[in-house]
Specification:
With 150 residues, the protein is mostly helical. The protein has one domain.
């Protein structure tokens, strides 16, 4: 029962896929091709996500969301600077772009990279109603809860 409640809470607090993609495009300044590249899908797939006609089938989209949510929630960078950081070569990733590292499944390394650990003191301007997926419970807390349910 507790597991079901936790899963429902995650779904309740998660913005729609279409609004997530719109935010990435308009506020963060990413291009459809960059989202597609990071998630290992075609541009058409991202357009379908934007229209809510298709759901992500690969965990790379969730990895991508975790990075963006973390940057937004920690106010490490302003939204437009998040896009610039994702497409820049990062020292913390050995000179690799975070977009490429996400595609390669290197989520832990991306989260540990400079922009996420030190960050900027610039305030984030997050649109009203946008909340990161993981705002209700941390990923570690959820994993611990799901293990204890077994």
């Amino acid at each position: 029962m507790r597991r079901q409640i936790l899963e429902e809470e995650l779904q309740r607090t998660k913005p729609s896929l279409a609004s997530q993609v719109e935010y990435m495009l308009k506020e963060i300044g990413l291009r459809v091709g960059e989202i597609a590249h990071a998630c290992g899908v075609t541009r058409q797939t991202v357009r379908n996500w934007r229209k809510s006609t298709e759901e992500p089938r690969d965990l790379r989209y969730e990895d991508f969301r975790v990075v963006i949510d973390r940057l937004i929630s920690t106010e490490a960078l302003e939204p437009r600077l998040i896009g610039a950081w994702l497409r820049s070569n990062d020292r913390g990733l050995g000179g690799v772009r975070p977009l490429d590292a996400i595609r390669a499944g290197r989520l832990t390394e991306v989260i540990a990279a400079d922009a996420l650990s030190g960050g900027s003191s610039l305030p984030a301007s997050v649109p009203r109603g946008y909340e990161p997926v993981r705002n209700a419970i941390t990923e570690d807390e959820l994993a611990a809860e799901l293990r204890s349910d077994r």
